[in-house]
Amino acid sequence: MAQKFTPPATVTGRGSPLREELSPQEIVTALDRYIVGQDRAKKSVAIALRNRWRRQRVSGPLREEIAPNNIIMIGPTGVGKTEIARRLAALAGSPFLKVEASKYTEVGYVGRDVESMVRDLVDLSVTMIKREKSNQVADRAAQLADERILDILLPSPVKRQRGTEDPNEADAIAKWERTREKLRVQLKDNLLDEKQIEMESSETRFPVVEVFTPQGMEEFGVNMREMFAGMMPRKTRRRKVSVADARRALTAEEIDKLVDMDDVISQAIDRAENSGIIFIDELDKIAGEPGRSGGPDVSREGVQRDILPIVEGTNVMTKYGMVRTDHVLFIAAGAFHTSKPSDLIPELQGRFPIRVELDSLGAPEFVRILTEPQNALMKQYRALLETEGIDVRFTDDAVDEISHTAQLVNDRTENIGARRLHTIMTTLLEDVMFRASSMKAKEVVFDRKDVKKILRDIIADDDLSRYIL
After folding, report:
1. Strand, coil or helix: what is 220?
2. In 3D, which of 11, 270, 262 has the Cα closest to residue 121?
3. What is the structure's pLDDT at 224?
4. What are the DSSP E strand ranges found in 40-84?
């Protein structure tokens, strides 16, 4: 059965330029809805984001001289480093890319070169701008698609040649217009969604080819239709589809016709250059360890030297044209357990002037993480089980016990921060989630005794707690 057609939803918030009224205090307040604690880190990223808005309003040549406040966030895993950067990008409506420094290799080694992060950022920016433009013309495209479907359902009557008159022709045209208007109303009310029609569609699948460049092997989705548009005829095929599916396909085609891709690319490059955010995770993995050299980590310093010009500001060639990175905001993060930021090459250290150390999380923070944020873990599990008609609730002492258990396991094994709560909650609710569809009781309440009973044996055995929790 075909699904009913619904026009594309308009995307709001994400993708739009930073709002003028979004002050650093408001940015921190917005981050507080999803992230517990880490006030120093929130304050630093809020100031960095606001400074970008300030720079865009500086007049004269000084505007180009103002460099972004790149940040290094230092802290163990699971304390909120990635989440802060991700939520910040959503607030700003900026193109946001998360990469891992350990996946890049220096020039001359097999692997991804560091310039690919800029190319990926521009790809995201193009997608973001195209989505915005598509939302702006979605209503017009839907109208044009409906007209094309009406042409298929009820072709226009053949008009006689000029100079010949037929008294019945005017009546036929009037009847055709009345019938077309009835079909238009039925189409608008989704009454024709199941009807099968025959339509002509263009081939939309194109091969992905690998292009070998001096910097390394990169995968590019190459649109063969655009490359050979003037050399090869457009390939189409006729197929039978439901009206609902035809509306979706034809609306997408009309959107492509209405959206000016040259304008999209121009705006996308500008947004990537002036509002883009690149989050470089695991920066500590490419920091040289004291007293260690050679071996498989020989390219660590080379990767740092390749990243340096990107952070300093350089021109990177992309498939959309040249992109400058002078004003891209870079946020780096790492645990720095076996190394420290001073182990990075001095030039790279200087390009990250702001360093913020994030606090480790304990039981009090875990209590807040479980209950306070809009996307709190307990709210997520309750929502999942509500789909089965089951109401799961946790007493206050149960929440305290879960939090203390998470801290205990983190202290005894590996400290993975708030991620430990996921494993504990999954273990705690495993039986309920397995039997949810056949449970007669529609209300499940966990207290401290229930939590201790379920987790007691796992916590007592170090090996079990290491591999299960």
Report:
1. strand
2. 270
3. 47
4. 71-74
